[in-house]
Write the structure tokens for this entry.
Amino acid sequence: MSQNLEEQKMSNRDHTSSLLPLGLVIALLLTGCSTTSSGPTTFVVPVPPPATTEYLVQPGDTLDVKFYYHPDHNQEVLVRPDGKIVLTLIGEMPAAGSNAAELGQEIAKRYSANLRDPKVGVTVKAVTTLTRVYVGGEVLRPGFVQFRPGLTAVQALLDAGGPKDTADMKEAVLLQRVGDTEYRPTKVDLAKVIEEGDTKADMALSPSDVIFLPKTGIAKANVWMDQYVIKMLPIRPGYSLGGL
């Protein structure tokens, strides 16, 4: 009799251990699919990410120009839309497209006709976002891309590395500035441009616009679980794992 009880206990342990892998699989599936994704509701233009290469001065930037041996000539200047700055004694000079060190050397060179051995340091005090477009969401390199006349939504997307596999190209959102802090959202079907070649579906951008690519609908957890997990398992909701 005791032998039969021992064999029954061993059988129950074997049965229980066989349920663990399936239970763990279901738990992992539920954990992996617990995040839902919906289209953006509130958009805020983020601060430009730290530069991975040396920053180049852009129109709209504010520069702090310091003369180490002649502090009376220290000045703060704004880079004009034409890319030039205006300095005392020497007047206007190109600035956009140069890094801070190069610009400091060029300023020192021009001031050498008026000052003895000038040493100049340039610091970018404030960076403008008015000549950039932000591309975010399901893209390979989310961040700011440089605006240029004629830039379109698809071109900006490609500048940001292109879409991820999880991007819903039909539900792209274009945000256009309508005030100092407000944006007007417009839905853009970029799939027509990339997949069907319909260039008329593309949108021309303006400085400070935002392009956002949401995730595809399959990324919504409830739908994904119902269609691609629950219906594929050999059990159904309401069934006991102990009945396997």
Summary: The longest helix spans residues 2-32. Confidence is low (pLDDT under 50) at residues 15-43, 221-244.
